[in-house]
TrEMBL record:
GO terms for cellular component: cell outer membrane. Residues 1-24 form the signal peptide. This is OmpA family protein. Residues 230-346 form the OmpA-like domain. SMART domains: YceI (SM00867). Its main location: membrane. It is found in: Cell outer membrane. CDD domains: OmpA_C-like. It comes from Bradyrhizobium uaiense. Transmembrane segments: none annotated. Keywords: Cell outer membrane, Membrane, Signal. The keyword tRNA-binding does not apply.
Length: 346
């Protein structure tokens, strides 16, 4: 019993927990339905916005190895356009759909949970986010609910900075999306997680399977024209579609976003989509128009190859005639070299 509770404590001490698939008899599993994980951001130095991640799955093995995976696509603020911006502009979930936390828990330090209801535990963990891994240490409070259930709660907010995870450009895009309002380049994380073991494992595994089924259904369900418009509007500002220099040949690094575009278009079966190409002002006007037209056509060709009916998608090239920034620096010219998507009126 003493050893079982110590193991449970190890499982619970993990603050940002993820998925694991080891033998259930050797693990404490995260009860995702009873757990909460929040992120707070600040804009204009005064407005605090709270987002919740609903896609959590985690476990802790008896040897203290703990893993947590957070589905970044599951970010929820109850405002669709805000969630879409967080996914595409900040986290770039088309390339980095998950965050992962790993930790090695100290069994000896968790022994006190066998004789106490609640203990403080200094948690050291690694966070992998946006292709970058960093080490953190944060205090958590571990509470014994029953012999087969424990909760782990953040004792104070965990600060994650944009610079540490190459998210600075994403913060700038979010700021542009809301009219240039400054956004603090850091976020605070808080959580309340419940881990369980023993006879509770089958129910957790059944709930996990049901969640996976529901998520798959949501990911393939038809979405409204309005939702489609929102997604295409945001995707048009990602600056994540690339071509060979001076060419209409798509770079392979464009594929993750274009695959997402194809998925959205296929989930909006009644919508007709226009793909428009744009260039900077370098070069002749006719050459730029031709290049933009060919690039837009290349994108249409890719989408058609990935299931979007050719009858529902068309392309236009505008060259350098519709800039969104002055062509006075490389940074601004890069913004003008873009592909945009628009739902056409019926």
């Amino acid at each position: 019993m003493r050893r079982q509770l110590a193991t449970l404590m190890m499982a619970i001490a993990l603050p940002l927990v993820g998925t694991a698939t080891a033998n259930a008899q050797q693990e404490w599993l995260l009860n995702a339905n009873a757990s909460h994980f929040y992120m707070q951001t600040a804009k204009n130095n005064t407005t605090i916005e709270t987002q919740r991640f609903t896609g959590l799955d985690g476990s802790v093995r008896r040897n203290g190895d703990a893993t947590l995976k957070i589905d970044l696509i599951s970010v929820k603020s109850n405002i669709d356009v805000r969630d879409v911006r967080m996914r595409y502009l900040l986290f770039e979930t088309f390339k980095f759909p998950q965050a992962e936390i790993t930790a090695k828990l100290d069994m000896q330090k968790l022994q006190d949970l066998t004789s106490q209801i609640r203990i403080a535990y200094p948690l050291k963990f690694k966070l992998s986010l946006h292709g970058v891994e960093r080490e953190f240490e944060a205090p958590v409070t571990v509470t014994r609910i029953t012999d087969q259930s424990v909760s782990v709660t953040s004792a104070e907010p965990i600060i994650v900075t944009a610079e540490d995870f190459n998210l600075t450009a994403g913060i700038a895009k979010l700021s542009e999306a809301v009219g240039g309002i400054p956004i603090v380049a850091a976020t605070s994380i808080s959580f309340d997680l419940v881990f369980e073991t023993g006879e509770k494992i089958p129910a957790i595994e059944a709930a996990r399977a049901e969640t996976q089924r529901r998520v798959r259904a949501e990911e393939t369900a038809t979405i409204s024209t309005e939702a489609c418009e929102t997604r295409f509007s945001v995707i048009s500002t990602t600056q994540a579609i690339y071509f060979k220099i001076g060419s209409a040949e798509l770079d392979h690094s464009s594929e993750p976003l274009l695959n997402s575009v194809a998925d959205i278009a296929n989930r909006c079966p009644s919508a007709r989509v226009e793909v428009t190409g744009h260039t900077d002002s370098v070069g002749g006007r006719e050459a730029n128009r031709s290049l933009s037209t060919n690039r837009a056509s290349a994108v249409v060709g890719y989408l058609v190859q990935h299931g979007v009916p050719a009858t529902r998608i068309e392309s236009t090239g505008y060259g350098d005639t519709r800039p969104i920034a002055a062509n006075d620096s490389e940074e601004h010219r890069a913004k003008n070299r873009r592909i945009e998507f628009r739902v056409l009126p019926k």
